[in-house]
Amino acid sequence: MTQHGPVCVGIDPHPGLLTQWGLADDVEGLRRFSLGVVEALGGRVAAIKPQSAFFERHGSRGIAVLEEVLALARAAGTLSVLDVKRGDIGSTMAGYADAYLRDGAPLAADAVTLSPYLGFESLRPALDAARASGRGVFVLALTSNPEGAEVQHAFGVEGSVAGQMVAGAREENAAADGPLGSVGLVVGATIGAAVRDLNLDLAAVRGPLLAPGVGAQGAGAAELAEVFGDARGQVLASTSRGVLRAGPDAAALRGALAQAVDQARAALAG
Ligand SMILES: O=c1ccn([C@@H]2O[C@H](COP(=O)(O)O)[C@@H](O)[C@H]2O)c(=O)[nH]1
């Protein structure tokens, strides 16, 4: 984030984007699109975030392309956040942890997104695997979609659901070395005043805050500044279609990235 700017580019090969890039909606189109993004932006961006759904829809050959994308990013020295939003009972989470957070696993990424709605502690196998292998996780706290509020803003005996995710991540990072620990949260850039309304202290998490919703979902500099307040130094703003629509030309993709970085830096400075 310091070197390349606080922006993560999502690799979301929507059928419509494949068409726009002059590609077929098949495995070869998926491969050319996804590898094209990594070739254009690898080594120039803080992180890439492949969206697993758009690879899974092509079956086992799509997953093989995802493996290639992760390997190419690794070779380029670019961090990968695999957006899989996994969550299950602990014994099954151990399987997911082994799939994504183990050295040498075919789908190993630098970080994954996790869904904590079976309880924060159900994520334990992934939290432990990430710590053991020097990787990270991003736990969904306040997602960018409007429907998320009905669950995430709800209050129980221990406060709001989102607040429990903030507390869980803060505890995980308490003993971390360095300025930021490796347990991050997903906090959408589109959520407006929710952090203030729910009285959440995101800065105290001492972890990175992945902020999807920039670009196609409508958030920009003003929204980033509004949502994150004094936690803005922890924010990794995430945009997929906002950059991908500039392709397939590599220079145009880099131009769109540069614009997104300028915008995020201006919004999150200070
Ligand atoms: O709260 C969330 C969590 C994840 N996402 C994912 O990010 C991208 C957004 O794509 P855009 O084209 O920039 O809208 C997508 O993969 C989502 O699944 C999110 O949007 N919100």
UniProtKB/TrEMBL annotation:
What Gene Ontology biological process does one annotation of this record name?
A: 'de novo' pyrimidine nucleobase biosynthetic process
Keywords attached to this Swiss-Prot or TrEMBL record, sorted alphabetically, are: Decarboxylase, Lyase, Pyrimidine biosynthesis
Please give the start and end residues of each transmembrane region.
none
Q: Which SMART domains match?
A: OMPdecase
Pathway given for this chain reads:
Pyrimidine metabolism; UMP biosynthesis via de novo pathway; UMP from orotate: step 2/2
What the entry lists under InterPro entries is as follows: Aldolase_TIM (IPR013785), OMPdecase_type-2 (IPR011995), OMPdeCOase_dom (IPR001754), RibuloseP-bd_barrel (IPR011060)
Which ranges carry the Orotidine 5'-phosphate decarboxylase domain? 6-256
Q: Is the Lyase keyword given for this protein?
A: yes
For molecular function, the Gene Ontology terms on record are: orotidine-5'-phosphate decarboxylase activity
Catalytic-site annotation from UniProt: K85
- What family does the database annotate? Belongs to the OMP decarboxylase family. Type 2 subfamily.
- What is this protein identified as? Orotidine 5'-phosphate decarboxylase
Starting at the broadest rank, the lineage of the source organism is: Bacteria, Bacillati, Actinomycetota, Actinomycetes, Micrococcales
